[in-house]
Design brief:
165 residues; single chain; alpha+beta; 2 strands
């Protein structure tokens, strides 16, 4: 299965490369974020039927077969060796370094809970800093999900097993 996914990703990346378009250009043409476009073309997100039409318009070389493959639920995975890539390593390092403080602020502002990685938007932007140098802006925009108090009254009744009372 991993080989099939790798082959599909290679083909999808080839379509993007042949188009000469950046992720930002495809995102603008489809109304998606640039990171989500990359997720789609890496089979880390599922292409929805309404978006398939827009993606096909942006990347006309996408065949119906490729679009149908992209509409299947993906196996969201990653290569464990990816952490060795300097960009991924630094992103991980930043989250680990700032994570505890971010968690405290989320808890202070929202209460005991987390940021969803499912109801989630991510984008990468390029800006010019006050010193005139290029800067990377990574935006994580996730829905707040409060932790719940686990009350027995909220449990779905378990089906009685044969012989139980």
């Amino acid at each position: 299965m991993a080989e099939d996914k790798a082959k599909l990703i290679s083909i999808l990346q080839g379509v993007k490369l042949k188009s000469g378009k950046s992720y930002n250009e495809i995102a603008e043409q489809t109304g998606l974020t640039n990171v989500y476009v990359a997720q789609l073309l890496r089979r880390q997100a599922q292409l929805k039927p309404d978006t398939a039409v827009k993606l096909k318009a942006a990347l006309p070389e996408l065949s119906d077969h490729l679009l149908n493959e992209m509409m299947k639920p993906p196996v969201r995975s990653y290569d464990p060796n990816l952490i060795q890539d300097p960009t991924v390593y630094r992103l991980n390092e930043a989250v680990m370094h700032f994570g505890e403080s971010i968690k405290e602020i989320i808890n202070e502002e929202f209460g005991d809970g987390i940021m969803s990685a499912i109801d989630f938007y991510c984008s990468v932007d390029k800006v010019t800093g006050v010193d005139g140098k290029d800067r990377v802006v990574v935006t994580f925009d996730g829905k707040y999900l409060p932790h719940t108090e686990q009350k027995s009254e909220h449990m779905v009744s378990k089906k009685k097993l044969p012989g139980s009372q």
